[in-house]
Specification:
The structure holds three protein chains of three kinds.
Chain A: H1 2-12, E1 26-31, H2 37-53, E2 57-62, H3 66-79, E3 85-89, H4 90-98, H5 120-126, E4 135-140, E5 143-147, H6 148-153, H7 163-173, E6 181-183, H8 192-202, H9 225-241, H10 251-259, E7 263-268, H11 271-277, E8 287-290, E9 300-303, E10 305-311, H12 318-328, H13 331-340, H14 362-369, E11 374-377, H15 386-401, H16 407-424
Parallel strand pairs in A: 1-2, 1-3, 6-7, 9-11
Antiparallel strand pairs in A: 3-10, 4-10, 5-7, 5-8
Helix pairs in contact in A: 2-13, 7-9, 8-9
Chain B: H1 7-36, H2 57-65, H3 68-99, H4 105-115, H5 120-133, H6 140-164, H7 169-176, H8 181-192, H9 194-210, H10 213-218, H11 227-237, H12 242-271
Chain C: H1 40-69, H2 90-97, H3 100-130, H4 137-145, H5 152-162, H6 169-176, H7 190-217, H8 222-230, H9 235-246, H10 248-263, H11 267-272, H12 284-294, H13 297-327
Helix pairs in contact in C: 2-13, 3-7, 3-10, 5-7, 10-13, 12-13
C-alpha cells in the first residue's frame, strides 16, 4: 500500500530538482545560512549580474531562516541533492569536510586570477589544510562599541583601553533606576566567546597563536593563574555594571541593548555597525567604536572568524559552481558584499576605500596598524567537539552567573575538558 | 436555562469573564501596538501604552523586502488542500472506527495516538530523504501530502467522537433505500455532522497554517515558501528589531484570526454536534 | 496493551450520550456497534475506508519515524558521520548519566502539571460561565478563542517581549501598580524564567480546555439539572455530583491529549529562554533541540524515544486507572 502512495505521489509530482535543462542551461542551487533580508537582497543582485555574464548558468538562491538553516543544510548535504554552492563557516567546515560533503575546489581554482588580490588572511583560510573547501567572503573582528556621550558625562576623556578601564567606566555609568546600564554582557548563546576573549588578553604573552586556547608551553590557557584574574573581573563586570537580564542575552539582545540606548558598551563584530546605524534611539554622534580591550600586559588577542562559499561534493556542476564563487570573491562584487554587510574585506587594499576610513571603522584601522598590540590568533574553532564545547561552556557561564558554580570550578572544568580532548586527538 | 442566577453570582461571572477577556487580548493588543509605533518609540521610557505617533514604517519595510502575496497564496493553497483532504480521509477512518468492531481496532487507535507522542525531529531526516526520492522536495504538492498525514490522526479521533453520537438508524434507513455505505455516509450523515466537520477542518487548517519545521525542511525557493517560513526568516534575523518582528507576527496571526472570527460559531457548534438532540 | 478508548458501558442510563469532542466516544446504547460475524464484505468496507488514512500515516509518519529511530542506537554525530556504528543503548546511558537530566525530567513534570492545572481550572470556569446565554456571547467566544490560532513559536516571541527585563510591559505594569519597585529580570533567573514560560503556556492552553469543556457541557441534558434542582441540590453539589460525572469521559480524555501535547511542546520555551539560564528551563523536548544543534543526533533521537516511552507508560496507567474507577 505504500507503493500505491508513492506511485500516486510520483505521478503527480510537478517539478524536478536542480540539473541541466534541455537547452543546456545549468541551474545551480545556492544555500545561505546566515540569512537576513538585506543580505539576501544584495546577494540576489550580485547573482543577477553573474547570470548576465554567464548566460548558460541560472542560480537559485535558497534562504532558510537562520535558526533552522544549519539543520536544513545538513539534511540537504546528507541526501546529496539540492545543493551546489553553500555558505561554509569556520565552525562548519570541519564537520562538513570530515563527512565528505564539501568538494575540494583546488583543481577548479588552479590558475584563478583572483588569488593574488586576496589578503594573506583570506588566502590562508582558503588553502588551510592543503585543500580549498571554501573561499571566505569576509572576516569578523571584534571591536568595542561605546557611547561617547555617556562616557563623557561620567567624566572620562576617552573610551576604555583595558578590561579594567571598562569595568571602571561601565560601573560609573550604570544606573538601573533610569534604565541605563554599563556593559551589554553576553550571558546567553555563545557567551563563552567573550569569556575566552578576556582570558586570551590576560595570557596574551604566553598564548599559542595557532591554537589560541593553548599556551606556548602546551597547557590549556584556562589553567594559567592570569585566567582566574581575568574571569573574576569578567564576572564583576556582570555583577556591577550590566543589566541583570543579560544572563540570558545572546547576539540579538546585546545588539538591541546597545542600539536602543540602554547600555553604554558592547563588544561585537563589525557587521553590527550597520545595525546600530539604523537605530533611531541613538544618533551617529552618540557612539563610535574603539579598539579591543587589552590585558595587564597591554595586549589583546583578535580571534579570526570567517565564513565563505564552498561547493557540495555531490554537486554535478562543480565547474559552474566554481565560476559563481570566483565571481563573488573578486573585484566589485566582493567589495560590495563586504561593505554591504560591514565585513572586514578579503581583498588586498579594499580597506583603503573611503568606506573603511570613516566613523565606526576607524578602530579597525588602528588595530590593523599595530599588530603587536592587537594580535591576530586562530582559535581551535574547527575541532570536532567545538559545538559540544560551546554548549557546555555557555551553560556553565550561566551557572556561575546564577551562583551554582564558582569561577575556580568553571576554569578547572574547562581546563580538564580541553586537556582531555587534546589528549584523545 | 433552568436555574436562576443571583445578582452576586452574575457579577462574579461577568467579572471573571471580563478579566479573562482582557488577559486573552492584551498580548495581542501589545504586539499590534508595538508594530504601529515609530521604531524609536518602542524603547522610550516610560513605556507608551499606545502608539503616540502612529507609524506604518515597520509594515512598509516588511512589504518592501518580502513577496507577501506569494506567501499568502502558498499558505492558503497548502493549508486548504491539506485540511480538506485530511478531513475527508479522516471521515472515512473515523466512521469505520465508530461503527465497526474488529480485532485490530484498539491497535489502530493506539497507533493514531502514538503519532501525537513522537517529537517531529526524529522523523525529519528520513522524511527529507523520502521526499527527495519522490522528487517532492520544494514542491507544494509534496508539502500537502505530508500535512495530510500530520492531520489525519487527531482529526480521526475527533470525528470518531461525533459519529458515535449519531444514531446509526440514520444510515441504515438510507442503505435500505438503496444507498451504498459510502453514499449513505455522505448523503445522510455528513449533513447532520456538518458543524463537527467544519470544526475538524478548521483545526486542521490552523495546524497547517502555523506549521513551520516541515515547511522549512521541505521548501527551498522563495516562490514556494509559506507564511510561517518566510516570517520566521524575518523574525529571527530581525531579532534586534522588535518593531519589524511585531509587524511580522501580526501579519502571521491576522489570517487565522479572521478565519476564527467567522468560524468560531461553528467550532462550538461543531464540537457540540454530538449533543444535538434527536 | 489494549487501549481502553472505548468506554462504552460506563453510562448505560444516558439517553443523550456524551458528546465526545476530540476523543470521548461515550456512546449511547442505541448506537453501540453490534458484534456481527465477520463477512468478507464487511471486512472489505473496513479495509477500504481505513486504507487512505493508513497509507498517509504509514508512509509519511511511521516510515520516517521508524527509520529515524535507528539513530538512537548508533553513534550518529554530525562531527563525523563516516562512522555511524551501532552503540546499543550507549546514547541512552549518555542521557541518563548526564547530571542535567534530573533537572530536565523534573522540569518536564513541572511544565506539564503547572501548565495543565490552571489551564483546566480556568478553562472549566469559562466553559461553565459561558454555558448561560448572554448578549454578545458569540463575539466573546470568538475573541477568547484567538490564542488558539497562534503558533507556539509566535506565542514565545510575544511573551519574551512582554517579559523583557528592561522594556517589558509586565514589569512596567507591576511597577505602576506598586507590586514591585524594580524591574524583574524574568528570563534571567531559573525560578522566574520557569514561571514566565508556564504563564505563556497557560495563556495559550486555556482556550482549548474552554472549547472542549463547553462543548461537553452543552450536551448535558437540562432534565438532569431540573431533577437536581427539584432534589434541592446546591450549585456546588450539582456541579460535582451531576455535571462532572456526566462529562468525565470528555474531561479525562481531553486531559490525556493535553498531557501528551504539552509534554511534547518545546516551542514556547525554545522561543522564550532556549532552555536557559544554565539549562534550568529545559524540558526533554527542548533538550532534544539543543542536542540536535550540538550535532549529536544519536542522543537527540534517544531523547525522542524516551519521550514516546514515557508518554506510552503514562497513557497506559492513565487509561487503566480510568477504567478501574469506572467499573468500581
Amino acid at each position: 500500500m505504500a507503493g500505491l502512495g508513492i506511485g500516486l505521489a510520483a505521478s503527480l509530482a510537478l517539478s524536478g530538482c536542480s540539473g541541466t535543462a534541455d537547452d543546456g542551461t545549468v541551474t545551480l542551487q545556492m544555500v545561505e545560512s546566515l540569512t537576513n533580508p538585506a543580505r539576501t537582497e544584495l546577494l540576489e543582485t550580485l547573482i543577477g549580474e553573474f547570470e548576465e555574464e554567464n548566460p548558460g548558468i541560472k542560480v537559485e538562491l535558497v534562504s532558510p531562516p537562520t535558526d533552522q538553516a544549519d539543520q536544513k543544510i545538513q539534511q540537504m548535504l546528507q541526501s546529496g541533492s539540492g545543493v551546489d554552492v553553500l555558505e561554509v563557516r569556520d565552525l562548519t567546515v570541519g564537520p562538513f569536510s570530515t563527512n565528505g560533503w564539501l568538494a575540494d575546489m583546488t583543481e577548479e581554482f588552479e590558475g584563478w586570477s583572483g588569488w593574488d588580490a586576496l589578503t594573506d588572511n583570506a588566502r590562508n583560510v582558503a588553502t588551510a589544510n592543503d585543500a580549498t573547501y571554501f573561499i571566505p567572503y569576509g572576516f569578523y573582528g571584534i571591536s568595542l562599541f561605546y557611547r561617547t556621550d555617556l562616557v563623557e558625562q561620567a567624566g572620562f576623556d576617552g573610551p576604555p583601553e583595558s578590561w579594567e578601564d571598562l569595568l571602571e567606566q561601565a560601573e560609573a555609568i550604570q544606573d538601573p533606576a533610569s534604565n541605563t546600564f554599563g556593559y551589554a554582557f553576553r550571558g546567553g548563546k555563545n557567551g563563552y566567546s567573550n569569556a575566552a576573549l578576556i582570558i586570551e588578553a590576560y595570557v596574551a604573552d604566553d598564548l599559542d597563536l595557532e591554537n589560541a586556547y593553548r599556551l606556548k608551553n602546551g597547557d590549556s590557557m584556562f589553567a594559567a593563574p592570569e585566567a582566574l584574574e581575568a574571569i573574576e573581573l569578567y564576572f564583576d563586570l556582570f555583577e556591577r555594571a550590566s543589566p541583570p537580564s543579560s544572563v540570558a542575552w545572546g547576539y540579538p539582545e546585546m545588539v538591541e541593548g546597545f542600539s536602543n540606548g540602554s547600555t553604554a558598551f558592547l563588544l561585537q563584530d563589525p557587521e553590527v555597525i550597520a545595525a546600530v546605524q539604523q537605530s533611531t534611539a541613538i544618533t551617529e554622534e552618540q557612539w563610535t567604536t574603539a579598539p579591543m580591550l587589552v590585558g595587564p600586559t597591554g595586549k589583546a588577542i583578535q580571534p579570526l572568524a570567517t565564513a565563505g562559499w564552498g561547493t557540495a561534493e555531490a554537486s554535478e556542476h562543480k565547474e559552474e559552481a566554481a565560476k559563481l564563487i570566483q565571481f563573488l570573491s573578486e573585484g566589485d562584487a566582493s567589495i560590495r558584499f563586504t561593505e554591504g554587510n560591514s565585513l572586514v574585506p578579503i581583498l588586498d587594499g579594499a580597506e583603503d576605500a573611503e568606506f573603511y576610513k570613516t566613523g565606526a571603522w576607524e578602530s579597525y584601522l588602528t588595530m590593523n596598524a599595530s599588530p603587536e598590540t592587537y594580535i591576530t590568533a586562530v582559535q581551535p574553532r574547527g575541532v570536532a567537539w567545538w559545538t559540544e564545547w560551546s554548549e557546555k561552556a555557555d551553560a556553565e557561564i550561566q551557572q556561575v552567573l546564577i551562583g551554582q558554580l564558582t569561577p575556580e570550578e568553571l576554569l578547572a572544568g574547562w581546563d580538564a575538558y580541553w586537556v582531555e580532548k587534546w589528549a584523545s586527538e | 436555562m433552568i436555574d436562576t442566577e443571583t445578582t452576586p453570582a452574575r457579577i462574579t461571572r461577568f467579572a471573571f469573564l471580563g478579566l479573562w477577556l482582557v488577559i486573552s487580548l492584551f498580548p495581542l493588543y501589545w504586539i499590534v501596538a508595538t508594530s504601529l509605533k515609530a521604531p524609536g518609540a518602542i524603547f522610550r521610557y516610560p513605556l507608551e501604552y499606545w502608539p503616540v505617533e502612529l507609524s506604518f514604517e515597520n509594515y512598509v519595510s516588511l512589504f518592501e523586502t518580502a513577496d507577501f502575496g506569494t506567501y499568502v497564496v502558498n499558505s492558503l493553497l497548502v493549508a486548504t488542500a491539506a485540511a480538506t483532504v485530511a478531513t475527508l480521509i479522516s471521515l472515512l477512518s473515523a466512521y469505520v472506527l465508530a461503527r465497526f468492531e474488529f480485532r485490530s481496532k484498539s491497535a489502530v487507535l493506539m497507533a493514531f495516538l502514538v503519532t501525537q507522542m513522537i517529537p517531529a525531529f526524529i522523523a525529519l531526516g528520513p522524511l527529507y530523504l523520502l521526499m527527495v526520492q519522490l522528487k517532492l522536495v520544494d514542491n507544494r504538492f509534496g508539502l500537502v501530502l505530508v500535512y495530510i498525514a500530520v492531520c489525519i490522526p487527531f482529526c480521526t479521533i475527533m470525528l470518531r467522537g461525533f459519529f458515535a453520537n449519531i444514531p446509526d438508524a440514520l444510515e441504515e434507513a438510507a442503505m435500505i433505500d438503496g444507498c451504498s455505505r459510502l453514499g449513505a455516509l455522505f448523503k445522510v450523515i455528513v449533513p447532520v455532522m456538518k458543524p463537527g466537520i467544519v470544526a475538524a477542518f478548521i483545526f486542521n487548517f490552523v495546524n497547517c497554517w502555523n506549521e513551520l519545521f516541515l515547511a522549512v525542511t521541505l521548501m527551498n525557493k522563495d516562490e514556494n515558501k509559506t507564511i510561517p517560513t518566510a516570517l520566521n526568516g524575518f523574525i529571527t534575523s530581525f531579532n534586534i528589531d522588535w518593531g519589524s518582528m511585531s509587524a511580522a507576527a501580526v501579519l502571521t496571526i491576522l489570517p487565522t484570526m479572521i478565519l476564527f472570527a467567522f468560524a468560531s460559531r461553528y467550532i462550538v457548534q461543531g464540537l457540540t454536534a454530538g449533543a444535538v438532540k434527536g | 496493551m489494549s487501549l481502553q478508548l472505548k468506554t462504552t458501558k460506563e453510562r448505560p442510563s444516558n439517553a443523550a450520550g456524551a458528546p465526545g469532542p476530540g476523543t470521548a466516544p461515550g456512546r449511547p446504547a442505541a448506537t453501540r456497534p453490534r458484534r456481527r460475524a465477520f463477512t468478507t464484505r464487511r471486512g472489505l468496507v473496513i479495509l477500504a475506508f481505513m486504507l487512505p488514512a493508513a497509507i498517509f500515516v504509514g508512509v509519511f509518519t511511521y516510515y520516517p519515524m521508524i527509520a529515524g529511530s535507528q539513530m538512537a542506537f548508533r553513534n550518529w554525530k554530525l562531527s563525523n558521520l563516516t562512522d555511524t556504528s551501532w552503540v546499543g543503548l550507549g546514547n541512552f546511558v549518555t542521557v541518563f548519566t548526564d547530571p542535567a537530566f534530573g533537572v530536565i525530567l523534573g522540569n518536564s513534570l513541572l511544565w506539564v502539571v503547572a501548565s495543565i492545572v490552571p489551564q483546566f481550572v480556568i478553562g472549566f470556569a469559562i466553559a461553565l460561565w459561558l454555558r448561560r446565554r448572554f448578549r454578545f456571547r458569540g463575539v466573546y467566544q470568538a475573541l477568547i478563542f484567538f490564542p488558539w490560532a497562534i503558533s507556539g513559536f509566535l506565542i514565545g516571541i510575544l511573551f519574551r517581549w512582554m517579559f523583557n527585563g528592561e522594556f517589558g510591559v509586565i514589569n512596567d505594569l507591576l511597577m505602576k501598580t506598586g507590586f514591585i519597585d524594580q524591574g524583574i529580570p524574568w528570563l534571567a533567573e531559573p525560578g522566574t524564567a520557569m514561571f514566565a514560560v508556564i504563564v505563556a503556556n497557560v495563556w495559550y492552553g486555556v482556550t482549548f480546555f474552554a472549547i472542549m469543556i463547553l462543548a461537553a457541557l452543552q450536551s448535558v441534558p437540562d432534565e438532569l439539572f431540573e431533577a437536581a434542582a427539584l432534589d434541592g441540590a446546591g450549585k456546588v453539589r450539582t456541579l460535582f455530583q451531576i455535571t462532572v460525572p456526566y462529562i468525565s469521559t470528555t474531561l479525562a480524555l481531553t486531559v490525556l491529549l493535553r498531557v501528551i501535547w504539552i509534554f511534547n511542546f518545546p516551542d514556547i520555551i525554545w522561543a522564550m529562554t532556549g532552555g536557559g539560564p544554565a539549562n534550568q528551563t529545559h524540558i526533554i523536548t527542548t533538550w532534544m533541540i539543543t542536542m540536535t544543534q550540538k550535532g549529536d543526533y544519536g542522543v537527540a533521537s534517544a531523547l525522542g524515544l524516551i519521550v514516546v516511552a514515557l508518554l506510552l507508560v503514562f497513557s497506559a496507567f492513565y487509561l487503566m486507572a480510568l477504567r478501574t474507577r469506572k467499573e468500581v
